[in-house]
Give the backbone structure.
Amino acid sequence: MKGMMLVTLLLFVVSGLHAFSSGPPPYVCDNMTPNHPGSGQTAANPYTLTFSKSTYGPNEEIQVTLSGSQNFKGFLIQPRKEGTTSTTTYGKITPDDNVNTANPCTDGKTALGHKNDADRSSASFRWTAPGSDVGNIVFLFTVVKSQTVYWVKQESATLTFDSSQPTQQPTAAPPTTPSTEPPLQDSINADPGCGTTLSCFPSSCTTNCDYLVMWREEGTSEVEFTLKRKIQADNYYIAIGFSNDLQMGDDSVSMCVTMDGVVNVQSSYNNKGIRQNLVLDIETYGVTMVSGNYTNGVLSCTFKRKKNSDLAVGFNGRKKRVATDDSTFFDLNSSYFLLVAHGAANKGTISRHSERPVISQSKIDFLSLYTGDSSSGTTDGPVGTVTRDKQCGSTLGCFHDCNGGKCSFLLTWKDEADDVVLSLTCARPLSGYCAIGLSSDDKMGDDSVIECVSIEDRVDVYISYNDNTPSNHRLDDQQYGLSNMTTKNEDGVLTCKFSRKKVYQAKKKRATGPGPDTFFDMNKDWTLLYAYGKASSGFLNKHDVRPLTSDQKADFQSFMEIGASANDLLYKVHGILMVLAWMLMASAGIFMARFYKEVWPEGMEWCNLKRWFVVHRICMVLVFLLTAASFIIIFVKVGGYAKIDGSNFEKSHPIIGIVVMALTFINPLMAMCRPKPGESKRVLFNVAHGSAGSIAHTLSIVNLFSGLWLAEESVTANTNIVLWVFVGWIIFIHTSSHIYDCVKRRDQKNITQKSYNKVDKSPDADKDDGDIPILRYDSKQGEAYEMKDPTAGESLNDTQQTQVDGVKLGLLLFHMIVLLALTIAVVVMIARGGQSEHDHDK
């Protein structure tokens, strides 16, 4: 019963977690850059794309093969127009291998990628050309040999249009046998007016899109939007957000939500710096439903949105609170990045989006005709190396992570009158950034930030501020206090030299303008933070890894030299201790108590204690000690209770941690006060003690997932995969052991019953009144004593006393090996988390 309870609990709590699928994620379909440590290789590419012919005609089918001198694990291929930076794709791809390859892109793009990371020597497919001349075509391809060795956005030979070729009809699909699968979804196709009388996103999709957003201006006060999305359930949503940057947070949102197939439109707001969506006080504030339906797997919704909050107030009535104003319902007279997200809904309330939101590459003017993103798809290019300045520590102050003179970044400074002359150099690609934060502690939040941002062939310097959430916002005057700026990006090295005012010059300050609270005084000493990542249209994406922090506070009036470190040692120790406690020790201790009380018969005790009890007690004592140590470490590190801003799952981490610590403390106290075997309260103790242990074990595993989610900058998706394997193994081994025990008890009961029947010939001989011993398990008491039974030897012969179930011992050994292997894997991944990224940059 206890085994089934754990299975049920595990299945219940892990059902809400997010798994990681293999293959390229949809959000890399534009830049084709893997979300792997490091950057693309600059050495000669050993892989090539070959074609069955070098020209194409209308609807002609051409065989394409990717191969090379070395095996590879992953790839992404797209047919694009030669000589342009557009991400539009052309034609149609039909894979030769539908099992291991598929189109990973969700915005209507033509592409092919891997579905697993198996080694392969080649990949082939058929490309059907467009029905007319679209110009010269090249295939861009990214090939991944290993996690850190890959070639990005390589270019094939050119396919030219052959006008002499007759127009071919598209190849008909072969006949298929009847299928029991549900009917295919309706296609989502772009409106014929897209790009001429109607704005459409994505502009590259024309037929069979996964989603589509269309809009046009209606009169002087409204914009009409139509949202379409392929979905799998009748409780779902598709939402569009209007954002001033490329990050979720501080976004005005309009969303179409289905509840049992009925579609409604709502206005909401993504909290600033917090990944949480809140429906406005008036949920239909500024929006009017025109039509909506859910038919054949497609959610379609048309609504009108007022251009600004002034028009919305007059339309929807009196405002209830400040939640419905221009701070949450943005003015469409301004341009915004467009965010498109989708996911499941529960009784009209949306859940976390099911995949990373799609974001436009540039800001969109929603009152003008939109024809496509203007930002280019230029290859990021190589990442270079930074060299330590020899004047560091003598005539220059320096902050760096140099090792043997090679660095991934270098900040130098020199005090000059009212300014500090700064130079920030970092190894970044063409569309990337590096930033320095001035902080009063070693954590992000309440920091004055200096950004060095590369936008293709242009480099700029900006001043911004990390609020307490933490979320980054540029000051109204984005280059306040800066002068003498010189910038460049050469050979993968980004350099920004400039002068920064030491203090804020007092003047009339706007509400969100620069001030002493956002532009810190450089006469004071500050802890320095270094972060880097990718930039789009000049705006910062989330940093790639956990920011580095200075080993000591920086004095900008001295020529001190300061090193940088990840400052995440205590976080790692906290995680490792919890993994050892709950993946290894708790799993072993609970397994012993649940399934091994009856394996070793009387006479095989250790110090008059049953073997299972000795192992169980040692494991659970270690669980308590490891959990307590981990709890104290993180409590000291964060300075008390950790206030986490984010999804409810992320916020639950410290709460669940406290519950687990409490149960871990209470359960040994219960064990110390356990009633003796046979007492009436013993059954109640068994239920309470076992339930507390199972609940603590289950919650701890849930917390391991949320902890890895919070530490996503420092660990890879592989760690989550190992955890999922662990969950699957626990479910499998507990279920298998439970079934084995049931079968064993049934067989033993039949054997024992027959032996009793030979002695007792009464009519009631076939009844089990609880007196028949089954594997030395007393079915009346429901107990297997922790200590040796002093009367056991009286009724057992020598053979019975020494008989041990070899199958269960083998199963136990194998279980321990699997637990140890999975635990070591997670511990190593946590310990090495974040190292490869920084080491590679050096």
